[in-house]
Design a protein that fits this description.
By secondary structure, the protein is α/β, with parallel strands linked by helices. It has 2 domains: 5-219, Metallo-beta-lactamase, Chain A (4-Layer Sandwich); 220-254, no CATH class. Helix content is 36%, strand content 23%. It has helices at 32-42, 56-59, 62-69, 143-154, 169-179, 184-198, 208-214, 223-233, 241-253; strands at 5-9, 13-19, 24-27, 46-50, 72-76, 88-90, 95-98, 101-107, 116-119, 123-127, 130-131, 134-135, 161-164, 206-207. The protein has a 6-stranded mixed beta sheet, covered by helices on one side. Strands 7-8-9-10-13-14 form a 6-stranded mixed beta sheet. A hairpin with a 4-residue loop joins strand 2 and strand 3 (24-27).
Length: 254
């Protein structure tokens, strides 16, 4: 996926959008006006709307866009009662052909119970599950669920481009640096991210390989990270899901 464009919305959302030469696709359009401006400026027809979960900042523009452009709406079957009306309700393993791409649906409970991602040949649209140097809050799921969901994403090829939907990178890096203040790569990544944001440029997309290297929420199995978390909480925390849960709790309070 070389042509995905992040359309900024609200305070820190990105609506990922692309044009395949015939029609456009948007992912999690919380704001119809932002999408309409992009479509009209480029004279693009809108073919599909892909949804990862039900939260209003990801779905608020769907009805307006459907009415205006007749777009097909695709989203998780498990959340269909909380979503705008779906034309295609998908589950784990379903295939979605959209915008010149072939996606496989991956169910990723944690942020919400029915959260999904769209996995292509070299990319993943993962909503609010995995962020640059972070992960989503557990609004509905349990730590074990999110831990397993992140493990599934981490198992994708390292070259996989990660399209997540919030510009949380600087805050996530500040937290990660408190956990691991001597992590040289985190220091370098933070400097680059600060430079990008100073120029009002996005820090996204990222890659699975990059996130494996420095995202603490993908490294909860590492003994050194577990020891760092243990020091922060004042008690021994074993590597794995317990370290992940402790990390998430610390981030929630930060």
């Amino acid at each position: 996926m070389k042509n995905a464009v992040p359309l900024p919305a609200f305070q820190d959302n990105y609506i990922w959008s692309w044009f395949d030469g015939k029609a456009a696709v948007v992912v999690d359009p919380g704001d119809a006006d932002v999408v309409t401006a992009w479509l009209e400026a480029n004279d693009y027809p809108l073919q599909d709307i892909l949804l990862t979960h039900w939260h209003p900042d990801h779905t608020g523009g769907v009805d307006t866009l459907r009415q205006r452009y007749g777009a097909r709406v695709i989203g998780p079957a498990a959340e269909r009662e909380r979503l705008p009306a779906l034309d295609v309700a998908v589950v784990e393993g379903d295939h979605v052909a959209s915008g010149g791409e072939d996606f496989t649906v991956m169910e990723l409970p944690g942020h919400t119970l029915g959260h999904i991602a769209y996995v292509g040949a070299d990319c993943v649209f993962c909503g609010d599950t995995l962020f640059h140097t972070g992960c989503g809050r557990l609004f509905e799921g349990e730590p074990e669920q999110m831990y397993q969901s992140l493990a599934r994403l981490a198992a994708l090829p390292e070259y996989t481009t990660v399209y997540c939907t919030h510009e949380y990178t600087l805050a996530n890096l500040a937290f990660a640096r408190r956990v691991e203040p001597d992590h040289d790569l985190l220091r370098q990544v933070e400097a680059d991210a600060k430079q990008r944001r100073a120029q009002d440029a996005p820090t996204l997309p990222t890659t699975i390989g990059a996130q494996r290297a420095f995202n603490p929420f993908l490294r909860a199995d590492e003994v050194a990270l577990a020891e760092a978390v243990s020091g922060m909480v004042g008690q021994a925390v074993p590597p794995g899901v317990d370290t992940f849960a402790a990390l998430r709790a610390l981030k929630d309070r930060s």
